[in-house]
Amino acid sequence: MTDDYALFGRDDQLAVVDTALSTSTPAYLMFEGTPGAGKTALLGQAAELAAGRGYRVLRAQAHPLEQDYAFGLVRQLLQPVVAELSEPARAELFGGVVAPAAAVVWPWAGVPADAPFAVLRGLYWLVVRLAEQAPLVLVVDDVQWADAASLRGFAYLAGAADDVPVSLMVARTTGMWGTEEKLVGKLARRLSIVDVAGLAEADVAAFAHAVFAREPEPAFVAACQRVTGGNPFLLRELMTSLDERGTQPTREAIAELTEFSPQRVSRWVLTRLRRAEPGGAKDCVAVARAVAILDDGADLPLVATLAGLAPDVAARAADTLTRLGVLRHGSPLRFVHSIVRAAVDSEIGPSQRRAAHALAARTLTARGPAERVAEQVSAHLLVCDVIGEPWAVDSLRAAARIAMRRGAAEPAVRYLERALAERPGEGVRLGVLAELGRSELGIDVRASVEHLGEAFDGAHDLPPELAPDPEFVMRMATDLTIASATNGTWSMACDVLDRASAALAGPAPELVSALQAFAVAAGVGIPGFPQADRLARLREIAAPYPGSALMAAVLTAHHLSSLGRSREEVVRLALLAREAVPAHTVPGLVAHMFGAIALYRADEFDSASEFCDVMMAGAPVLGQPLFAEVGHAFRSVVAFHAGRLADATGEAQAAVDIRDGMLGGSPLPSGWEGYLVRAHIERGDIASAERVMAAAGPPEVWQSTYFANWLWYGRGLVRAERGELDAALADFLECGRRLAEHDVLNPAEIAWRSRAAMVAYRLGRTDEATRLAAEELDAARAWGAPRAVGMALRVMGQVTRDADTLAESVSVLENTPMRLIHAYSLFHMGLAHHRAGRRGDARTALAEANRLADEYGSTRLAEYSAAALERIGGRRPNAPRFGADALTAQERRIAERAAAGASNREIAEELFLTLRTVEHHLTVTYRKLGIDGRRALPAALAER
């Protein structure tokens, strides 16, 4: 009987596949069942059905020993496709947003390492581009053994690819658990589960008829169904064995079934091994056990070594095992079924298993350079006893480097932890600790601080003749600083930098100047830090060194912007960060980070956004997710002030998510939550704002940096919305007090006085409100940025009810990118006109405020202005539904790119959207513009 036995009774499951492949949307299926239920056969049949309908089918199979191969399954799926391409076609395929995926699929392209999200996004767009050539079906067997990185990739695809012709079909064996069960469960929730249960009696009867070539008696069928649970593989084993004995499928044969149970399959398999030709049974057992140790796909020379046999003897035993139905035909060597593999594996003792894995690691190491075989060797090292030899540490470190290049930190951490267990010499141990701490930066920053700190302390304790290279000390100190800052221990960061500076003062003065620049940067997290004095000293020692001098200039820009002084000088100095060469170094990213802060305070939004893009591009290259976190946060600030509230919400949430990921799921509020609260409230989503603040916890767990003052500000906003005015005022005043401890006096950072003034005004404390508003206006005028001045003028006009001040606010903001802030000034000026009896002017101002609020997504202001217009004119306005004025900012951006000839994919790649989102926006745009499609866009947009 052929392998077709596995498809007996599977018409229902095949119908699900047929239906899924017949629809216009991608199929996301997970076949679930016990070992032997026929999942692999179903996947194979699904692949044939897909290929027959014009799909390109890509297949992969997971194995237990490969669960630490970063993106191992993704490579199985995609690498053969990429290998078929010409060099120019590959270069085009990996261009732009897809470039990070090359580190996974085609590392020979020389693309630098990247971060998990960038790699996932690159892989998504790689699949999209391939699907443009032909619809794809990705088929993955034994997904329970999948590596974490591949599972994240599949989950990302299933969550984002409804708009492209890419189907995903996987098989999962129940009762078997790999190392990433949570991720398997997450993927399962995104797929449609197809249950592959035991066969019904009617199917068992058909099965028996095929084996015995005669009609089975019902009692026999029922007994077979009962003892096997209807499992097709077990049915075949049972019935084939009975048929070989000459047993017929009758009631009388039921007595012979009593000795059968699924648990006794091991005995059946071993009995079959002992049926080998005389003298060959021992060799067959040795080869079978070697294949079980090496996992499916073992090559014969390695199997021979593990089995302790000559190559020709091992080959003869393998042929015997194939004839006996234990191994499949062909090469490499594979068991006919996972049940058979498990049966053989169960007979191997723990000590024998560990020794075999150690021998496999040693044998593989001898085959070539550590980098080429590192993952294979390390897979065995992870499950054997300590080797205690340098080559083991070398292989594990090489495997960790490979994983980090692919943006997969978890396996890198496991490899390096095992490398430490190998008890390397002190000098090598410090290197392993430093690499381990660096690998942990993106997934467990607390562990990163511990390991980097141990490496740093150890380097200082070494005798002079063993002292590490100054560059190594510099790298350790830099990584430890970033880890400490992420963990909220800013004082520790400064201490580390000062200690490293002292150690390198003699041999490396240029490195000392760079370290001191980092120390000044870390000082922003320390209340009362003597920024002015440290900056003056830094400028002096950095003068001879261009890189450090540039850092000193940008940090000076940041400090001046904190004080709210010398705006033109601040912009000039901040823009020097562009001269950081290369930008994708840690000093270069630090320069761009502090430059971005100074620039957004100065209303230089385009340049600030450019600096954010540099940070977000460089963070993955260096494996430093902190800069991606900060880049998202500052993009949220820029988006908010420009009125792009949906973008502001998404960017702030991305910053919070990255931080949570770095902290290993144990959140430490940073301040970005305050950005998120502000955006939620502006969009009218008070409930989400309250949830964010609740998740941030009490002030006792907040960090001490000035960024964390956004939490005080956010809590004040939420309390004001609830009507808890005294508590809100206290939060805004505390925010201001803490900002002053950091020398942050510029209202362009946080306009806390304006908020406090408005709450005091609502409490009837007019004098206090006026004083706070006046202080804010003085500080804003001293700084001179339109945003800060316009906002301060508006609040002063509100608390003094002065229409001229409100009109000045409108004038200051009128020709700036701050459209939403301008809309608020228009709204309050409209109210002032109404109080003065100027109804026509009031309606004009309020209508424009309403239009801008609707355009930029401010539900809050749209409601306020609509209600005010209703009170004045008796009719509540409707948001424009047709014409170019009805387009949101995002719809307009997409429409303009489409009108210029960009494809949906090009637009999605450029704007960091999915194809589905682009298509949705274009559909809405066509409706609003009253056109049929893309060709009419240029003319419709030109009519604005």
Automatic annotation (TrEMBL):
It comes from the Bacteria. The keyword Protein biosynthesis does not apply. Keywords: ATP-binding, Nucleotide-binding. GO terms for molecular function: adenylate cyclase activity; ATP binding; DNA binding. CDD domains: LuxR_C_like. GO terms for biological process: regulation of DNA-templated transcription. Pfam families: AAA_16 (PF13191), GerE (PF00196). GO terms for cellular component: cytoplasm. InterPro entries: AAA_16, P-loop_NTPase, Sig_transdc_resp-reg_C-effctor, TPR-like_helical_dom_sf, Tscrpt_reg_LuxR_C, WH-like_DNA-bd_sf. Residues 880-944 form the HTH luxR-type domain. This is Regulatory LuxR family protein. The lineage of its organism: Bacteria, Bacillati, Actinomycetota, Actinomycetes, Pseudonocardiales.
